[in-house]
Amino acid sequence: MTSRDLRIRRITVRNYRYTHPNLGYDYNGFNEVFQRGGTVQRTGHVLTIETESGITGEYVGGSAVGYVQVAMVAPYLISRSALERERIWNDLKRALRKTDRFGIGPIDNALWDIAGKVYDAPVAELLGGYRTRIPAYASTYHGDDNGGLDSPEAFADFAVVCREMGFPAFKMHGWGAGPISREVATVRALRDAVGPDMDLMLDPACEYNTFVDALRVGRACDEANFLWLEDPFKDGGQSAFAHRKLRELIRTPIMLGEHVRGMELHVDQAIAGGTDFIRPDSDYDGGITGVMKLAHAAEGLGLDCEIHAPGPAHRHCIAAIRNTNYYELGLVGPGIDGPSLHCPIFTDYSDDLDAIDAEGCVPVPTGAGLGVTINWDWLDANTTETVVLA
Ligand SMILES: [Mg+2]
Prior knowledge:
Elements: E1 8-25, E2 32-51, E3 56-60, H1 64-77, H2 85-95, H3 104-119, H4 123-127, E4 133-142, H5 152-165, E5 169-173, H6 180-194, E6 199-202, H7 211-223, E7 228-230, H8 240-249, E8 254-255, H9 262-271, E9 277-278, H10 287-301, E10 304-305, H11 312-319, E11 327-332, E12 361-363, H12 376-382, E13 383-388
Parallel strand pairs: 4-5, 4-11, 5-6, 6-7, 7-8, 9-10
Antiparallel strand pairs: 1-2, 1-13, 2-3, 4-12
Helix pairs in contact: 1-3, 2-3, 3-10, 5-6, 6-7, 9-10
This protein binds magnesium ion (MG).
């Protein structure tokens, strides 16, 4: 097959919507939390990039913000070779420099799906295989006041359930509002409940109002031997200065990076002493290409790269990275039934709580490309809009 056959001829996005049961929102309407009998409406996106050869790349993911940018650059992609990912990535990096560049990720991931199908290999193999099973941590919904994860004891009980399922690690997202003493008590309750061997992490997701609250919780994390404290307070995970100060005051490693974008800012944040890890996401940081660049940047700094959030693209990346520890499986919680982020749309892939094996590992898809099968019947029934972008 010649590269000419792989010129891009059409780009389409399908938007879909579905209802998730037993969920609601917490104090400000943003964090999804357990709410018995409640529902939340979720939206999703499927990007399709067709080539002249008939080989089509598909990616399930991305955000509404990102697809505004995909629409902006879609005409540029027409007639380009789908195998020129690096050129496309760099062109789009400049073209979208006045945005957060969320549009690059879905495009790049769909192009990797095409490459895998061209070479009849899973993306992980093209990236360079390192592992075929990935240890996962259970990553919880935020704390609630509705009978779900509504107390230190409830978090501790759920962590024990996860440990007994085989998870080697557990990460709590705390409460969006409320006394910091409850957050501290939960850190202590978790370690008391699971014993010394399970890795524990805390992600307040930028909810704490003050640096002192972050310090109070960080000192509890020290006592409880937590593996990391992530994005603790309302600088929004941005301030290298503040987190370097926090790192001087506590022993627990600090995880930033979910809220800075691209190679240069991630590296700057690490060199400035703001974080102990590099944290990429393919939807946020320019797709699989962007994630692998960040993994190798971390490798060059001697640091580990911990990828944010689940999904098939992230499993392929982790399978090809040495300097990484865990796959983030979530969000999960007791009593929250029904499909997780991407589940209903695939016939052969899940990020639900029971996606792990007895050792707490998730598999890496083995089919060509991203190696997952879209449930087209389900998608047809839930599509709200199909837009040909170019
Ligand atoms: Mg986070």
